[in-house]
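Notes to self after the Tuesday call (sharing in case useful).
The group wants a holo model before anyone commits to mutagenesis around the pocket. I volunteered. Ligand is FE2/S2 (inorganic) cluster. Logging inputs and output together so the record is complete.
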Amino acid sequence: MNTSGETDAVWVHTEPYSKRPNFPKLSNDLTTDVCVIGSGIAGISTAYELVSRGVKVAMIEAREVVSGESGRTSGHLSSALDDSFVDIASKHGDSGAKIAAESHQWAIRHVGEVSKKLGIECEYRMLPDYEISQYERSHPKHAEELQEIQKDLNKAKDLGLAVSFRPDYAIKGWTGKVDQRDVGVYEEQATFHPTKYLYGVMKWLAQQPNFECYTHTRMASIKEKGILTTKEVQVSTLDGHTITCKDAVEATCIPLQKLSVVAQVEYFRTYCIAIRVPRGSYEDCLINDQADPYHYIRFTHCDEKDDYLVIGGGDHKVGQEQENGRFAELECWVRDRYTQAGSVDYKWTGQIFDSADAVSFIGLNQGKSHTYIVTGDTGHGLTHGVLAGRLIADEIQGVTNAWGTLYNPKRLPPLSTLPSMLAHDLQINAQYKRFAQSDIRDIEDLAPGDGGVLNTGTKKPVAVYKDEQGKVHRFSALCPHLHGVVCWNATEKSWDCPVHGSRFSKDGVQIIGPSIAGLSPEDEAGEVSQKQALGE
Ligand SMILES: Cc1cc2nc3c(=O)[nH]c(=O)nc-3n(C[C@H](O)[C@H](O)[C@H](O)COP(=O)(O)OP(=O)(O)OC[C@H]3O[C@@H](n4cnc5c(N)ncnc54)[C@H](O)[C@@H]3O)c2cc1C
Ligand code: FES
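Result:
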């Protein structure tokens, strides 16, 4: 697995894995100012800010750099937030909504500034974001949705964003008969090639004397040491090494812990395809409709003749549904609207984390005084990751940052979110029903390359993977986090937990938390393949 799934995202088309910057595995104990755990956009942005300010940083990464969700995104940098500004203001007041708008707008510009300063060619460009109705103009709900879009535009305008409404606007390249004209416009949005950008920043970091990075180095625990006040933080790795530091930043997408913010986040899989469109045949823009789940569109370079239209959507809760024609639905959606569309060259999925109160968690972790977290991307993990870099660097250095209160992981959820949090808790608890279910009746039912949970009712459920050669590998199906029963994800060949979204490779190795550990092997084949996958 090159990233957190078996499929490849479109970004490898122009930036293959062979261009990835390489770093050694940690082979000794070390002492530093800040240990950053995880090399996605949040970890890299935090390291960039701290290293630029002269702070000594050691980064550790369980796999290769940029092998998490940041390598599988759709690449928009947007302040047109998924949860409308009307909604954010209702939960965090106008002042909170203003901070959200300002901080995301800062992040959009910052990526442009950093790529220019470091000379990174990453297709960064500013463009408009079009919010459209999911319905055709002839449908009565078209007008209803436009009213909602306009309400949000008015709010965004009050918060200082450059927005407008363009009735009748037909997006260039939308040549199909489906007529969804009329757009709400968010100006000054951007897109880029996330992998080129992140590899570029990592290459710059690698040249700095106050930066070191270790890959295939998996964090096993973080402990704040000291009596009454924390004197140092110790980050231990699975291989038994210790990094002693003043502060640690857990940039692992979701913190690897039992509960607190973990329970305040909802976990979704989202689907993307990249489809060829002739260069020059379309308007370079971002498009989002109002469906639930919504469709999102952006473009990226393909070759001399074509570019790629990237469309995403089809979201569902982790481990609770399968692909079930979602890629085909996205393809049809595009072909009905962009009749010049050519072949579909990439199909991939990824994980998104929606916070209950529509805002990420960035800052000191609950109950901690020197351990920082970044999580709950809420559809905007790229901008959240970039702004987290500045916010966490400021907090570590004791610089007052006005964004801190909004994103504070120690904040109390607004009262208005209690009903949805309760529903979320019930939904999570209902997932334990899998204890009474079996996906397969017999191992013989599995085709090579397939997996499923076998639950005989008399013993603990077993996650069974039959490899391409027909050899069976067994693991405990109980997620080490809080004992949900995992499900087989046939698209990404992983075991996904329907409770809090932890994921494990077909060999049972942890891919995404909150579980810190992998699935326990239940036979020798499972043990051997897991050791191999961990490089032992
Ligand atoms: C299909 C898709 C499309 C998206 N589109 C957009 C978009 O257009 N715009 C946007 O703003 N957001 C988008 N997002 C969200 C965004 O991509 C993510 O929120 C963001 O990349 C998360 O970055 P991160 O640095 O927090 O986590 P990651 O990129 O996942 O990085 C975490 C890193 O931590 C490492 N790690 C985990 N555990 C350990 C451990 N124990 N020890 C050491 N290292 C560890 C992982 O290996 C990984 O490399 C999208 C997401 C998906 C899946
Ligand atoms: S992720 Fe919490 S039980 Fe599996």
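Two things stood out.
The chain has two domains: 19-266+283-291+357-413, 432-533.
The CA atoms of residues 135 and 142 lie 5 Å apart.
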